Amino acid sequence: MVPVSRFIFFASKHAPMQHSLSLLxxxxxxxxxxxxxxTKSTKHGGEKRETQHVYTIEEPQREKSYxxxxxxxxxxxxxxxxxxxxxxxxxxxxxxxxxxxxxxxxGPVIGGPFSLIDTEKRVVTERDFLxxxxxxxxxxxxxPDIGPEQVKTMAETIDKLESQENLKLLPxxxxxxxxxxxxxxxxxxxxxxxxxxxxxxxxPGAVRQMALEYRVFFRKIEEDxxxxxxxxxxxxxxxxxxxxxxxxxGPEYNAEHLTEAIAKEMKRKAAS
Amino acid sequence: MASEAYASRNxxxxxxxxxxxxxxxxxxxxxxxxxCVKNQSDKKPTELGCVGLLYPAECKKARLAYENSCRPSWVxxxxxxxxxxxxxxxxxxxxxxxxxx
Lengths: 272, 101
Fold this sequence. Notes:
- Chain B: It comes from Linum trigynum.
- Chain B: This is Cytochrome c oxidase assembly factor 6.
- The structure holds 2 protein chains of 2 kinds.
- Chain A has helices at 2-14, 17-31, 33-42, 51-92, 99-103, 146-165, 183-191, 204-213, 255-271; strands at residues 115-118, 123-125, 134-139, 170-175, 198-201, 218-224, 227-232, 236-239, 245-249.
- Chain A is an alpha+beta fold.
- Chain A folds into 2 domains: 2-92, no CATH class; 115-271, 3-Layer(aba) Sandwich (Glutaredoxin).
- Chain A has a 7-stranded mixed beta sheet.
- In chain A, a hairpin with a 4-residue loop joins strand 1 and strand 2.
- The radius of gyration of chain A is 42 Å and the shape is elongated.
- By secondary structure, chain B is mainly α.
- Chain B has one domain (17-96).
- Chain B is built from 4 helices and 2 strands; from the N terminus they run ααββαα.
- Chain B has helices at residues 2-9, 20-39, 60-69, 72-98; strands at 45-48, 54-56.
- The chains are: A alpha+beta, B mainly alpha.
- The A-B interface holds A 141-142, 144-145, 148, 178-180, 182, 184-185, 188-189, 192, 203-204, 222, 224, 226-229 and B 1, 3-4, 6-7, 10-15, 18-20, 23, 70-74, 76-78.
């Protein structure tokens, strides 16, 4: 509408009146049905009136009609938006008092059945853990630095737990490298730290299965035939008497902190 | 699988090179070598170590002892650690010398 009326306005100023009028009569009603409806609605005498006239009168009126329309529409739109936001907030809000019920969610399942062999070549399964507190560690004997350190931490921890807190724990070392860590080798390796540490090894598939169940990440790196390292997360798992994983400790724990943390967990369990 | 055959091939072998004594010997040789590299840092590093590690020719003897008492994978691992540490140190030093820029 605006360009057309502007054209008319321009034409009426600069071109001969007659010419512009004839132009309007020819095009305006047919090309622009809206303009016709305006002329009708304004009731100024219909088509026979000078179109020029109609437009000049119509101009302020149309502005007014826009204004009267826009204001309620904006108000309505704003009101609708506010209502929608309010409704959406209400829908998403968690009512007070229901939080405890809603938040209950069993954590990831860690651990599971396994069947490996110990350093005396006896078959061991998860049933051997029943009724005991177990400190489980996944490692490998060919580790250059962190592996021996972790096993040392383990040996010191069980010593401290026994002497300071009078708590008994079964330390278990599961190898992630069963190809090289044979029962005999594992026994020789663990004996140097503490003969009480039990070593588990087995078929590579069985070890992999157990590592998967305990969510242990491991992979071979720096591989050169039979000489390789195993990258792993050197975590300890504290397992309760019902075979459940109570807590997991990373390599950042030293013997003192580990002893403290394990004693806390064991006492809490005994109290409850 | 070849690696599974490896275990069955040597069912009762004890790899003495990862046991306490050998481990300690390896650590000692390693520390001796890195001490040498540190002490000879004014010399031009010409010899190539494992993972881009360069060391002066004066430390060749220590390097040989180090490589003899540690597994190749361990040597690689320690060299990598050393380079990483040195890089971190260099970045820290760099920051200091630049001062208030």
